[in-house]
Specification:
- It is a peripheral membrane protein.
- Pathway: Carbohydrate metabolism; tricarboxylic acid cycle; fumarate from succinate (eukaryal route): step 1/1.
- One of its GO terms (molecular function) is 3 iron, 4 sulfur cluster binding.
- Iron-sulfur protein (IP) subunit of succinate dehydrogenase (SDH) that is involved in complex II of the mitochondrial electron transport chain and is responsible for transferring electrons from succinate to ubiquinone (coenzyme Q).
- The protein is an alpha+beta fold.
- The chain is built from 9 helices and 7 strands.
- Strand 6 and strand 7 form a beta hairpin.
- Helix 2 runs parallel beside helix 7.
- The radius of gyration is 21 Å and the shape is elongated.
Amino acid sequence: MLPMRQRIASSAVCTARSCVTRSPLKIAPTLTTSRTLHIPGLTKLDKTVPQDGIVDVQVYRWSGKEGEKPYTQNYKVDVTECSPMVLDALLKIKNEQDPTLSSCREGICGSCSMNIDGQTTLACTKPIKESITNGKIKIYPLPHMEVIRDLVTDLTHFFEQHREIRPYLMKNDDAALKQSKVEQHQSREDRRRLDGLYECILCACCSTSCPSYWWEGAQDDKFLGPAALLNAHRWISDTRDDFQADRLRQLAEADLKVYGCHQIMNCAV
């Protein structure tokens, strides 16, 4: 029996073979390589914008009400009349065609993460021209997450896992740290060690791209997933923190918290 919040599971965009990769199997012939790639029986896909500018945007819809089934709804959008990102197309639909469509619109916070043309990415940074296949753009919620409504997914568990890694500076004398008005300095070299770690905006694209997270982390804490582990690494690497050893022990408490990773590498593409 399905829970009240409908789950996106195995579907055309949610299989381990074709979902959430930057180069899904179904668009392999369009990749830029040093040699031409030919797959017998596979039709070459058209990734260009139609001449008239009209794109068929197919959006996953679900009201969030128990007993109602999800469906995809098609919208005709003239992409020459809106800004270049997929989020702009969604806002054009909401403003001009269907005000009931639910998604994020901030364009900076990381909450517009969704599955676009088989890739889990941010709608505010994904260009429309890179999302079109045969004149269509297919948009679904984040894979293997509970859907609240339409493209909005429930990230409660994801953020609970983030809190579990204690994403803040910890000192041996926390009371003194809180009372102190002195900044906790570090050298420029130590600061550079955090490059590539602190920039995470918790959009959940990497974790929801990971089959290991689907199997062992999306509904429990067996595997923390790429996002939580990246942030754990960020605080373990911070020279101002006094609890590196304790943080490592916490991660090693359960076999799968870290070692649930099978180096599938969907999170890194």
